[in-house]
Amino acid sequence: MTHRANEKNVDFLIHGGDLFHEHKPSKETLIKTGQLLTNHIFGDKEHTFKVGASQSLNLKDGSLSIRLPIFAIHGNHDDPGGMNNLSNIDILHSTKLVS
Asked: For this structure, is 77 an active site residue?
């Protein structure tokens, strides 16, 4: 999905939930996902759209060069849970791979 998005020169990608089929994907799956995202989201591109959210976004981080911003929405397989209400999307967000 990210490869085609870069070919089409889209402004951003919105992922509508269920990035993983399992609620707890394997560590190998998380690492491969991080590698794939890293290969496609970083790079130089000027963005002309505006983001109204005040939360931390990788696009607003001046130390990063984001070519393809990805905005992720939790699905039922990657919904926040547990004591701290965290999910795999939160892990990817903490590494600045998704917003």
From this structure: yes
Q: How many CB atoms sit inside 10 A of residue 5's CB?
A: 17
pTM greater than 0.90 (yes/no): no
Where do the domains of the chain lie? Answer: 2-45+56-94
Residue with tokens 């590494």: 95
Q: Which of 15, 40, 74, 77 is catalytic?
A: 77
pLDDT tens digit at each of 99 positions of the chain: 566 777 888 888 888 878 887 778 888 998 998 998 888 888 888 888 777 765 667 777 778 888 888 888 777 766 676 677 778 888 888 888 887
| Distance separating alpha carbons of residues 99 and 5, to the nearest angstrom | 17
